Amino acid sequence: MKKTLLAAALLAGFAGVAQAETSVTLYGIIDTGIGYNKISGAKDGNAAKIENGSRFGMINGVQNGSRWGLRGSEDLGDGLRAVFTLESGFDSGNGKSGQSSRLFGRQATIGLASDSWGQLDFGRQTNIASKYFGSIDPFGAGFGQANIGTAFSAANTQRYDNMVMYQTPSFSGFQFGIGYSFNADDTKDAQTGFRTADNTRAITTGLRYVNGPLNVAFSYDQLNRSNALKSGPGADDTTPRQYILGGSYDFEVVKLALAVSRTQNGWFAGPGVNGNSMLSDSYGKDYTNTFRKDFKANSYLVGLSAPIGGASNVFGSWQMVDPKGDYAKDRDLKKMHVFSLGYTYDLSKRTNLYAYGSYSKNYALVEDLKSTAIGVGLRHRF
């Protein structure tokens, strides 16, 4: 009897050790609301083929994209861990998968991590700009056209397939990251082939400093054109690049955010409007991982956020994209302005209400094209 009890105790102890060394976490976000969108000023023949119209109805993934995921870690000893993340996006209005119906379209990575030397990940994941500037943007890289990615396309939750990424740990507030994608989007047949050079490859890197109320970041993204692009835009040796510099400082009563960027020879992730397929489908697809020789643009952001009481937060931003170069001149592209205001109220640590409004003039750099987005919703994290 004593031996049986001893064996049971030992097994329970080993099970406890195994559980402590290996963990898998199920997590997710459900974000759904009601919104109004309006497009006006569109003219026949514009490049994005956008039409005038309005819509009132359900919106989803506004503050954050609805998702579920599995995150795991196994202790390998000497401070080394095996880690993985599988994250699937979905439309909470109809239950459909997001990211072009990929099973794990938001992220699918496996890697090694250490508190001493950093983390190395392999697979589909966001680029450095998206990781670093989400915490600087007053809208947290969410809220549709209000988020920083509208003007700073490489920070628009840009994801690359087939990427190897290394990130250092934080050294006195400094952190560095770099990644290389062997095929940035392998769903695009025109940019995908057997030979290495027949794939559109991507480079992403950046440096940030986070210490107390100060958050400063710099990022660089580049696309290397696929040789499979034999004709049309990008058939030449065009190399899109974007540099972003920005930061925020929390004065406690108010948090100030500033950012500036330079874009050359193309665009990275095209922005869309929550609930508005006319802009999301046409502008978003036409302006994602594109090659446009001689296109240049300077982008700017000024943002503020402030807590109200213990559960509320109000925030706003102004963004502007100023197109330059022969490409912009030949197509008469105009400066795009985006004015946005948002509000959140915490019902608990996991659940909050939100409201936002955003207005854009010369949206998609098209003269007199106006986009208005207003919405209220509920977000729950688990």
Brief rundown of the structure:
This protein has 382 residues and is mainly beta. It is 11% helix and 51% strand.
Molecular structure report:
The chain is mainly β and 382 residues long. It has four helices and 17 strands. It has a 16-stranded antiparallel β-barrel with strand order 1-3-4-5-6-7-8-9-10-11-12-13-14-15-16-17. The chain starts with a helix and ends with a strand. A hairpin with a 3-residue loop joins strand 13 and strand 14.
SSE order and pairing:
Layout: H1 2-21, E1 22-40, E2 53-60, E3 67-77, E4 80-89, E5 107-114, E6 118-126, H2 128-133, E7 159-167, E8 174-181, E9 201-211, E10 214-224, E11 241-250, E12 255-267, H3 277-286, E13 290-308, E14 312-324, H4 325-330, E15 336-346, E16 351-361, E17 370-381
Antiparallel strand pairs: 1-2, 1-3, 1-17, 3-4, 4-5, 5-6, 6-7, 7-8, 8-9, 9-10, 10-11, 11-12, 12-13, 13-14, 14-15, 15-16, 16-17
Q: Largest sheet, described in full?
A: 16 strands, antiparallel, barrel
- Helical coverage, percent range: 10-25%
How does the overall form come out from the CA principal axes? globular
Which regions contain 5 or more consecutive residues with pLDDT less than 50?
1-19, 275-282
* Structure summary, number of beta strands: 17
Strand arrangement within the widest β-sheet reads: 1-3-4-5-6-7-8-9-10-11-12-13-14-15-16-17
Radius of gyration: 22 Å
Give short descriptive properties of this protein.
16-stranded antiparallel barrel; globular; 382 residues; 17 strands; mainly beta; disordered N terminus
